[in-house]
Structure formats: C-alpha cells, structure tokens
Amino acid sequence: MKNAALKYAGLLIWLLVSEPVRCETIKRYMLNVRNSAIGESRTVRSLLKCSVLFEESSQYLSFNYRKNDKTCELSTLYPESSKSEFDWAVYASISGGYHLSTTTANWNTAKAACESASSRLVIIDSQQEKDNLLSLNNNQDFNHWIGLTCDFGRDCTWIDGRRADSGYQSWAEGEPNDEFCVYMGWLGNNWDDTRCSHMKLYICEKI
To answer: What is the model's pLDDT at position 33?
Structure first.
C-alpha cells in the first residue's frame, strides 16, 4: 500500500521544503544538483525520460536530472536543496506543474510572468486540484490570481477560452459581482472577481 501511495498519490516537488514531509504522499525532484543516496544512475535524453524512470520505480523518493551530461540519478532520500528561477511542484503528471509566487503583481503582470516561464495562470478544473494547491500552500489561505476573467461579473472565461460555467466552479457566496479579474482566497479560499490592478500573489501552471 505504501508503494502504491507513492506512485499514484505522490507529488513530485521541485523545491526546498522547510518542514518535514510525509514520505507516503510526497515525491520530489531536483535539476542540475547532485543528489545523495543514489541507488541508480542512467544516461537519458531528457528530463521527461528521467521522470518516466522515476515514476516506474517503487523504492525511490527523489530524482535529479543533470542536463549538462544527461544523467538521471534516482535516490532513496529526498533532496536537501534546489535552485531554480521557478520552483515547480508537480502532481501526478510528469508534464504538468504549479508555481506559487512569492511576490505580488497585478493580474496582467502575473499573466505575463507565467507566460515568460512557458506556463499560464492556473486553470482549476476540480476540487481535487484546488485541494492539491492548498496543500502546496501549506494549507494557508490563498490570495492568488488565477487564469479567469469576467466582463463586469458576467461571461467569466478561462484564459484557454473555456467558459467558467461549463465546468468546475468555486465562487464565494454572491460572486462573481461586477469586476473583471478573478483571484482565489475569498470566504474560505473561494473565487472572487476584483479590479485587475490589485496586487496579489499568483499561481502559474505548466502547459
């Protein structure tokens, strides 16, 4: 059961976590940093190939992909540190990921920051995804822009063109109201539309 939990409920996290983590629910990886307790090392063509090897394993808790020499290192320990421009936390899928900003920006600047990292402001498709993001935020309240806009509180649309009312929604009571840009963090971490010029944290999603 423990191995199954590692494989299917596990998270790949590319970041330094200051608090202890639960081994049965979290996996992590690093990039271009030497790992310790290496149980297996292979030459692979890409980070994606390294990710596949890692996900197919049952005994490893972290991996490090050194892109300079295309080495994939699988380790039985969590990495101790990681340095990158963006810290990406990846749930289940090896091709996706989230970045929770540590600085504030208006909605348009946040959108541009995500796009500069080959990502987008997050689109939240389910309660499970919202819960995962809450876990990434250490179960703290959100005050984060998401990839959703409205037209005076109507016709709310995700940045990929989908209408918000065609799928999962998590609006606070009485919302949306009469504004344009949407953030998560109102009345129990729900959604609220507000002025796009407000300064807030934001969540990027790998695409």
So the answer is: 53
